[in-house]
Design brief:
Glutaredoxin; five-stranded mixed β-sheet; alpha+beta
Length: about 725
C-alpha cells in the first residue's frame, strides 16, 4: 500500500487505539429516545428510527444522520466531517459515548470545528465498508466504533477505532486528536485534501476488483488447498480455526465438514465436531437461555463479548444441523433447538419479524445480566442443587470475569460454562432444577437493550435456518415461524408492484436503502423455505428477488455483484464485497443461491452469472482461501451437477411432508429438493405422482425408480 501523506504528517500525534467491538487483523443504553424535557440536549438523531442513532439523540454533540443535510452544511461551511460508525449493541461504542460524546467540552469542540455524522453500520453496511476499508488501509486494523475524518466531499483522510479520553503511552487522547486535525485543516487544508485524494485512489483500485493474474479456470484443487489451510489453523485443544479472540465464523467449519464428508476425511469431521462441542460448552453459549454471543475474547470460548447477533445464531443453526446429520449426535440437534427457542422467545416481533441483536451491557456493566457470583447461587439454590450446579459450571469464589471497562467494576463474576459434564441420573435432575431456578431469577434482572429493528438481510439468514430446521428436526412450529417471518418481510419491506426490497423496518417505518445483502440473504432464506415446504409461491418469490437483484447489482461485464446500486449519490465508491467475515458476503451468498435457483428452474443464464461471480474472486480463492469460506462452498456446489430430489404430488399432504423430511434427513449439501408444480425445471413437471406423492432422485434426465418410502429416500441419498 502506498503511504497516506496525511498519516505521515500525523504520525506520533494521531495514533488510534486498537480496542474495539471487533478486530479485523487478516471483525446498556436505552434504544428509544425519552422526552426531551428531561434532557439538557436533543439533537437531530431524535428524528431517526435506528436504535443506535437514538442512543445518541441526547448527546451534546450536534449529530447529523448520514445524508445530504449534513453534506451540504459541510460544503457550505468548508468544515471536515467527523464520521462515527457503530451499532447499538457494541460495548466499546457505549464506552466511547460515555467518555467523549457525553462530555460537554469535547462536544463543544466537535460542534465548532466539524460536521458530526452518526451511522448505524447494520443499516448501512455499504457506508461502513468504504470507510472501514480506508481505516484498515491506514492503520492495518479496524473495528467499531469506527471514527473517520472526511473532507466535505466525503473522502476520508484519517481514522481509527476507539480513542481514549486521556492520553495513553503511544496514544493521544480523543481531544488531542481533534485539536491536531482541526489545526491541520485550518493551516494545511491543501495537503489534507491531497492526502484524501491519494487515499481515494487507493480505495478505487481496491474496489476495481480486477487482479491482473487471476486464474480463469476454477478447479477442485482450490478446495483441497483451502481445506489444508484451514486444518493448519485448527486449535486441537479448544476447537475452532484460529487464535483469540475467537469468532465462530460458521462458514469455515461448515466448509471443512463439507469437504470432510466428500473425501471421507475423518480428521476434518472430527475437527468440526470438536469445535461444535467446545463452543456449546463454553461461556460464549448462553447455558441458561440458549443462543451464542458474537465471539470469545479468549481461546477457550469462555469469556465472550456478551452481545448476541441474529446473523451469528442463524448461521450456527445450520452448522449444528449439519453436525447432527453427519455424526448422528443428538446433542448437536439439541443446541439447534435451544438457539431457535431463544430466537422465537426473545428475538421475534409479535407479527413474525426477527429483531437484530441484544446488547452486551445491562445497567452499564458488560455481562451483568449473564454472570453469577458464588454467593448469588448459594442464596438461590438448595444445598444439593448448589453443589451440583457449582461443580458443573465451575463456579469459584474469585470468578472468571471482571468488567474492567466500567468505573466501578463488578468482581467475583462467573461466566457459566460446562466444566464437569459427567452427571449421575440424580445429579442430572438436580441440575435441571437448578437451571430452572437460575433462569427464572435471571428473568427478573434488568435485561440488556434489545435492538428491535428488522433487517431484510439478517431475517433472510434466520428464515432459512429455521425453515431448514423445521424439515430436519421434524418441527412444524419452526416451519410456521418461517412462514410468518417471510409474510412479515413481504408486508413490511417488499414493494410487490415494483419488485423492490427495502432493508430496515422499525416502529412502523421502512427505509429507502437498496443493498445487495438484503436481496441475496433473503433469496437464500426463501429457497430454504421452498425446499422445506415445496410451496410454489415461495419459488415464485425467489425468482422475483433474483430478477431484481441481478438488475440492480450485477456487473454483466466483469461478473459479480456490487454492494449498492448504480448512481448512489451518498457513496464515493461502488464496491464489490467478497470477504466472508462474521457475516458471509453478499457475493458469496448470491452465487450459491443462484446456483441452487438455477438447478431448481433449469435457468442456464442464471447459473452462468453465478459462476462468473465465483470466477471474479478466483485469485483470492487460490491464494487467500481463509478469506472466502462461504464462496468456497459455492465453488464446491458449482463443480458438479447437483442431485435433484423431485417430490411429485400435493406438497401439503401428510405423505409428501414425510418425504420432504426424509430428503432433508441426510447430509447431502449438493442437492436440491423440489416439487413438480410451479416454476420448476421442465423435466420435473413430467414426473408424475403414483397413487399419492413419490420421490424421484435424479441427475440430469436419469432418475432412480420412484418410491414413496421415506427410508428408501434416505438410503438413496446416502
Amino acid at each position: 500500500m502506498r503511504t497516506n501523506p496525511f498519516l505521515s504528517l500525523c504520525l506520533g500525534a494521531c495514533l488510534s487505539a486498537t480496542v474495539s467491538c471487533d478486530s479485523k487483523k487478516t471483525d446498556s443504553k436505552p434504544a428509544v429516545s425519552t422526552p426531551s424535557a428531561i434532557h439538557p440536549h436533543t439533537n437531530r438523531l431524535a428524528r431517526e428510527k435506528s436504535p443506535y442513532l437514538l442512543q445518541h439523540a441526547h448527546n451534546p454533540v450536534e449529530w447529523f444522520a448520514w445524508g445530504e443535510e449534513a453534506f451540504a452544511k459541510a460544503r457550505k461551511e468548508n468544515k471536515p466531517i467527523f464520521l462515527s460508525i457503530g451499532y447499538s449493541t457494541c460495548h466499546w461504542c457505549h464506552v466511547m459515548e460515555r467518555e467523549s460524546f457525553e462530555d460537554e467540552a469535547v462536544a463543544k469542540f466537535l460542534n465548532a470545528h466539524f460536521i458530526n455524522i452518526k451511522v448505524d453500520r447494520e443499516e448501512r453496511p455499504d457506508v461502513d465498508k468504504i470507510y472501514m476499508t480506508a481505516v484498515q488501509q491506514m492503520t492495518r486494523s479496524g473495528g467499531w466504533p469506527l471514527n473517520v475524518f472526511l473532507t466535505p466531499g466525503l473522502k476520508p483522510f484519517y481514522g481509527g477505532t476507539y480513542f481514549p479520553p486521556k492520553p495513553q503511552p503511544g496514544r493521544p487522547s480523543f481531544q488531542q486528536l481533534l485539536d491536531r486535525i482541526a489545526e491541520f485543516w485550518k493551516t494545511r487544508e491543501k495537503e489534507v485534501a491531497e492526502s484524501a485524494e491519494e487515499l481515494h485512489k487507493q480505495l478505487a483500485e481496491i474496489a476495481a476488483f480486477q487482479p491482473p493474474d487471476s486464474p480463469k479456470i476454477l478447479n477442485p484443487g482450490f478446495l483441497t488447498n483451502a481445506l489444508a489451510q484451514f486444518k493448519m489453523n485448527y486449535d486441537p485443544q479448544h476447537g475452532g480455526f484460529g487464535n483469540a479472540p475467537k469468532f465462530p465464523r460458521p462458514a469455515t467449519p461448515s466448509f471443512v465438514l463439507r469437504q470432510g464428508v466428500r473425501h471421507k476425511d475423518a480428521e476434518a469431521i472430527r475437527m468440526v465436531a470438536h469445535t461444535c462441542e467446545r463452543m456449546a460448552a463454553g461461556g460464549m453459549y448462553d447455558q441458561l437461555g440458549g443462543g451464542f454471543s458474537r465471539y470469545s475474547v479468549d481461546a477457550q470460548w469462555l469469556v465472550p463479548h456478551f452481545e448476541k447477533m441474529l446473523y451469528d445464531n442463524a448461521q450456527l443453526i445450520h452448522l449444528y444441523l449439519d453436525a447432527h446429520l453427519v455424526t448422528g449426535e443428538a446433542k448437536f440437534a439439541d443446541t439447534a433447538h435451544d438457539i431457535i427457542r431463544y430466537v422465537l422467545r426473545d428475538m421475534t416481533h409479535k407479527e413474525g419479524g426477527f429483531f437484530s441483536a441484544e446488547d452486551a451491557d445491562s445497567e452499564g456493566h458488560e455481562g451483568k445480566f449473564y454472570c453469577w457470583t458464588k454467593q448469588d447461587l448459594s442464596a438461590l439454590l438448595s444445598p444439593e442443587e448448589f453443589n451440583v450446579a457449582s461443580n458443573y459450571f465451575g463456579i469459584t469464589q474469585e470468578g472468571n470475569f471482571t468488567d474492567h471497562s466500567h468505573p466501578s467494576p463488578l468482581s467475583n463474576q462467573n461466566v457459566l460454562s460446562i466444566v464437569h459434564p459427567q452427571l449421575s441420573s440424580e445429579d442430572g435432575k438436580l441440575l435441571l432444577s437448578a437451571k430452572s431456578k437460575m433462569l427464572a431469577a435471571r428473568s427478573k434482572r434488568i435485561r440488556p437493550h434489545l435492538d428491535d429493528k428488522v433487517l431484510a438481510s439478517w431475517n433472510g439468514l434466520m428464515l432459512g435456518a429455521i425453515a431448514r430446521a423445521g424439515a430436519v428436526l421434524n418441527e412444524e412450529s419452526y416451519l410456521a415461524a418461517a412462514e410468518r417471518n417471510l409474510g412479515f418481510i413481504q408486508s413490511k419491506l417488499w414493494d410487490a408492484p415494483n419488485k423492490t426490497l427495502f432493508h430496515r423496518w422499525r416502529d412502523g417505518e421502512r427505509d429507502s436503502v437498496q443493498l445487495l445483502d438484503a436481496y441475496a440473504f433473503l433469496l437464500d432464506g426463501t429457497l430454504h423455505l421452498y425446499e422445506s415446504t415445496l410451496e410454489a409461491r415461495h419459488l415464485e418469490f425467489a425468482l422475483a428477488l433474483a430478477e431484481t437483484m441481478t438488475a440492480k447489482f450485477y456487473d454483466p461485464k466483469e461478473g459479480g455483484f456490487f454492494q449498492s446500486t448504480e448512481g448512489s449519490k451518498d457513496l464515493i465508491l461502488r464496491v464489490k464485497e467478497d470477504y466472508d467475515g462474521a457475516e458471509p458476503s453478499g457475493n458469496s451468498v448470491a452465487a450459491l443461491a443462484l446456483l441452487k435457483l438455477a438447478a431448481l428452474t433449469d435457468d442456464k443464464p442464471m447459473r452462468e452469472r453465478a459462476e462468473k461471480t465465483i470466477r471474479q474472486s478466483a485469485a483470492k480463492l487460490q491464494r487467500l482461501p481463509e478469506a472466502l469460506p462461504y464462496l468456497l462452498t459455492a465453488l464446491d456446489y458449482s463443480l458438479e451437477e447437483p442431485r435433484r430430489v423431485v417430490i411429485a404430488g400435493d406438497p401439503k399432504s401428510p405423505e409428501a411432508k414425510r418425504l420432504i423430511r426424509a430428503a432433508h434427513a441426510v447430509y447431502q449439501p449438493n442437492k436440491v429438493v423440489l416439487g413438480n408444480l410451479g416454476p420448476v425445471e421442465p423435466f420435473a413437471k413430467t414426473l408424475p405422482a403414483k397413487n399419492g406423492p413419490v420421490v424421484y432422485l435424479c441427475t440430469g434426465t436419469a432418475c432412480q425408480p420412484p418410491t414413496n418410502e421415506p427410508s428408501k429416500v434416505r438410503e438413496l441419498l446416502k
